Amino acid sequence: MNIGITVYPTYGGSGIVGSELGKELAARGHTVHFIASALPTRLTELSERVRFHEVEMMSYPLFEHQPYTLALATKMADVAQTENLDLLHVHYAIPHSISAILARESLKPKRHLPVITTLHGTDITLVGADRSYLPITRYGIVQSDGVTAISNYLKEATREIFQFDDITVIPNFVCEHDYQRQPDESLRQSLAPANEPLLVHVSNFRPVKRPVDCIEILARVLQKGIKTRLVMVGDGSERTNAEHRARCLGIFDSCTFVGKQPRIVDYLSVSDVLLLPSEQESFGLAALEAMACELPVIASRVGGIPEVVTDGETGYLSEVGDVEKMANDAGRLLTDDKFRHEMGKRARESALSRYRTDLIIPQYINFYEKILAGGGAENSK
Ligand code: GMT
């Protein structure tokens, strides 16, 4: 197949999932055309099978804001024609599904270009549910030829918010080869010089991720007399608050903020427990990648996380903001190596038995084939 994929290139899990999906499809003989405003961060290599088409924005004094949605639609239609795309697969509804539908409509006199939308989370729970965006988000979803969601939770949330449930759940996935424990001793030494237990947090540091809670958890673990360090991977608006809180609590020296990193697996491989205290998480890709690297996960009991992390088996779940319980759970794990290693092994088994690439990628391919065969929702669009 000749597949067009659109993602947000620099920010968030949906871009990672779309990029990794493209690479996996190419590895299975399909040709993937990424259509985005910049080269997606996880797309390190282009080839005959993995191509990139940049959406160029025209600036004109009349435009107070550049019309990205229109520029994207134009590029999608152009690439669909020149590269003879079979379908467009967009990740994150706003505005990508609207652009794709515009592209499809503009090509209608010539051909039908199916549009598949994958819902990732905040496009539904935050953005789409805002009254001002709700009607247009609903339009994008309903008008898509096929819709997938990355968890059962998100399918249910979409049904409740948009009264739409023709959605196929295809969960996120992890590559068992790329994501396995492969500790780099010099990295471990730099993050935990006295071989202290190491907590890790990975996110885009938006308020919804509550990275400050990680600092609160570390403070409580240290209060228990457990010499622990914390590595904070990623960057975003909450980083300053997290650093400030660490300074206020006098524990800044026990933390390392490393910013955005190209190889998350390196940091997971040298860490002992992942902290994911998010306010909302429709799946929790960070949890899945950590589990594949044998890390137990301490997370909030929200959204799709309970589908990924089994409380007491592969990690511990708590109410949002319950940093006392999260610290108690972390303390238990960090002071019992055997217990932690066993839980870590179970976490990898659980991750791979349900979410490894060779289980999930064929589900996308089957879904594409079904849509191309005219089996999508309201397939006459
Ligand atoms: O919220 C983010 O971190 C970004 C957002 C996105 O769409 O880029 O992430 C969502 O998609 C990820 C990949 O499918 C999921 O693992 C995250 O749980 C989800 N984030 C939220 O629901 C808050």
Written account of the structure:
The chain has 381 residues and is an alpha/beta fold. It has 2 domains: 2-173 and 357-379, Rossmann fold (3-Layer(aba) Sandwich), CATH 3.40.50; 185-355, Rossmann fold. The protein has helices spanning 13-27, 68-82, 96-107, 122-128, 134-143, 152-162, 185-191, 211-223, 239-248, 264-269, 285-292, 305-308, 323-334, 337-355, 357-372, and strands at residues 2-6, 31-36, 50-54, 87-91, 115-119, 146-149, 168-169, 198-202, 229-233, 255-259, 273-276, 297-300, 315-318. The longest helix has 19 residues, at 337-355. The model has no long low-confidence stretch (mean pLDDT 94). The site of ligand GMT has 20 residues, from α1.
